[in-house]
Amino acid sequence: MRIMMKRRQRPRPIILLACLVAVGVTSLGATSANRSRAGWPSVRARAAVVMDAATGAVVYAKSPDERLPPASTTKVMTAALALESRRLDETVTVSGLAASTQPTKVHLEPGDRVGLRDLTYAVLIQSANDASIVVAEALAGSVEDFAARMNRRAAELGARNTRFVNPNGLPAQGHYSTARDLAVIFRYALDVPGFREIAGTAQSRITAWRRKSSRMISLHNHNRLLQGYRVPVIGKTGYTRAAKRCFVGAARAGGREVVVALLGSTDMWGDARRLLDFGLTHSGSVASVNARNTGTIEDRNVGHPSPGPALNPRIGRAHSLAAGRQGEFGYYSLILVPGYNTPGAAERLRHFISRRGHSAVIETIGLDRSRQYRVRVVGLRTLDAALRARAELRAEHLYPTIEPSEVGGSANPSYAGR
């Protein structure tokens, strides 16, 4: 009996030690996991991106390239193309197809005549699906042809994982985008004349004409952060059952502007606030949250151009702007699109710009699988020169942003990203 007792008691210190070790390892693992997440926003959205509006650098990403339904954030592209059409003063007629489009809508009726400018307000402020169809039919003749225009513009901007089937974001097979692409599109829209003004309007009214009578339609912005955040946030919401809550918008504070995009959220306003807080205070490396394990965070230095050797004698050298020499980069530069996946695509754009008399170089952004290539127009010594170059490139349907050099000169940071 005594021998049996000893046999039972002997393992106890070992079991106790094993338990202590297990608890210690678990605690250490939890501490490490908590430390890895410290300082980064907790985001419930399925995918999210925070992008510097001036440079296009991504400073936070969670599943940024996962193709998801974008719901009514689609309308950012619809409104931007309408504003660019130079037809805003035209009055167009509402078709039966447009009038039959289901919610959300402003209840346009077949035969109504509405100004294209008013329709653009209805698209961005009220998120009107019927107004979006009227815009598409007026500008392209059909929804299908307008969607083709949307896709061409998305491709021009570098939004390679986006495909639009309609102008309003109602569920449709093959209609998708990504958090990164939405941020790219919204960043482009910020520079479209009139976009900021309309997206920043809380309430408005438009007029629908029918024969000799007219009626006023009230519009109310769905964006709670326009007045419900510490600084105004202009943006576009979206919701369908399949897409869940979506949002893309921008805010400026302390001389910095960021674009946030989130898809598939169950806490849209909370996610948006946390992403904005992070983006407006964070600089430097990107936080890339693994889609399969949201507790895993990888820091990648993609927030700034990476210095490196020559990519190719025909392409030119990739430089860090901060390390550039004053005589080489000048006091201002123009950044073209957020980036290309291959140096060949960037080289074609660089060659196109060079043939128009501008000096341009290709920069590498990121490392390994996240590496991209973007084009920068350099040698612009004055703000006037930068503005002229930007205007010339916009005439070619390119949408560069102006960035002051970090080396010398009298650069005015207030012009960055405008």
Our count of domains comes out at: 2
Low-pLDDT segments: 1-11, 13-36, 288-330, 406-418
Q: Output the CATH class name of the largest domain.
A: Alpha Beta
CATH topology value of the largest domain: Beta-lactamase
Strand order of the largest sheet: 7-8-9-1-2-10-11
Helices and strands, in N-to-C order?
A: HHEEHEHEHHHHHEEEEEHEEEEHEHEEHE
Summarize the main sheet: 7 strands, mixed
In the CATH hierarchy, the architecture of the largest domain is: 3-Layer(aba) Sandwich
Overview of this protein structure:
This protein has 418 residues and is an alpha+beta fold. The chain folds into 2 domains: 41-303, 3-Layer(aba) Sandwich (Beta-lactamase); 310-415, 2-Layer Sandwich (Alpha-Beta Plaits). 34% of the residues lie in helices and 25% in strands. The protein has 13 helices and 17 strands. The strands form 4 sheets. A 7-stranded mixed sheet has the order 7-8-9-1-2-10-11, sandwiched between helices. β7 (233-240) and β8 form a beta hairpin. α3 packs across α6 (129-140) and α6 crosses α7. The longest helix is centred in the N-terminal third of the chain and has 27 residues, at 11-37. It is globular and about 60 Å long. The termini are far apart. Residues 1-11, 13-36, 288-330 and 406-418 have low confidence and may be disordered.
Features:
single chain, 418 residues, alpha+beta, Beta-lactamase, Alpha-Beta Plaits, 2 domains, 7-stranded mixed sheet, 4-stranded antiparallel sheet, 13 helices, 17 strands, 34% helix, 25% strand, globular, disordered N terminus, disordered C terminus
